[in-house]
Specification:
Layout (H helix, E strand, L loop, with lengths): L1 E3 L2 E6 L5 E3 L8 E3 L8 E4 L4 H5 L6 E3 L3 E4 L4 E4 L7 E3 L13 E12 L1 E7 L2 E7 L6 E9 L6 E5 L4 E12 L1
Parallel strand pairs: 3-4
Antiparallel strand pairs: 1-2, 2-3, 5-15, 6-9, 7-8, 8-15, 9-14, 10-13, 10-15, 11-12, 11-14
Length: 171
């Protein structure tokens, strides 16, 4: 923990989660409080199994994606995998045009390529120019342009796993 003026200000938990303004962070980076810059809202993915893939969940696994309950991940199994999608009905609320959202997740990359993250009909592209062969935390900030679901789409060459997904609105 880190303190200032006699009060705890930040905490790093044993599982690597960082909390600012909270002593119980719920995602890799959990910032709470008021600021002129923005405040992180509550977790929007309603079921914990939808965040970790630990058990049967509500994701749609299109061609080339599988759920591995032993490692609590979703994995691409072959080049050219389709989309991995969580419908808006499994969120606390659907995206709203103009709102800003933070999507964080852990990824383990087996092959170079890109991974497109989409939410609210807006996308962000992550380029994996190197094969990490270790877990990397990723954070994407998206301004919603529509009502599109949370979707992960790999390029034709990218292979890897995803877990610990968090979706929060920034206000």
């Amino acid at each position: 923990t880190f303190s200032g003026a006699g009060s705890e200000r930040m905490r790093i938990t044993n599982n690597g989660r960082i909390g600012i303004g909270t002593n119980n962070p719920q995602s890799l980076s959990d910032i709470q409080g008021t600021s002129t810059l923005g405040t992180m809202g509550a977790e929007m993915i309603s079921a914990s199994a939808d965040r970790t893939f630990a058990s049967a969940n509500n994701w749609t696994y299109n061609t080339g994606w599988t759920r591995n309950s032993a490692s609590s991940t979703a994995s691409t199994t072959a080049s050219g995998a389709g989309t991995l999608t969580l419908a808006n009905g499994f969120l606390s609320s659907a995206p709203s045009v103009g709102n800003i959202y933070q999507i964080s997740f852990d990824v383990y990359s087996f092959a170079t390529g890109t991974l497109q993250v989409s939410f609210g009909s807006a996308t962000s592209l992550i380029n994996f120019g190197n094969v990490f062969r270790s877990t990397q935390s990723q954070v994407v900030v998206i301004t919603a342009q529509g009502s599109g679901a949370l979707t992960f789409t790999p390029s034709s060459s990218w292979l890897g796993t995803i877990t610990n997904i968090s979706l929060k609105q920034v206000t």
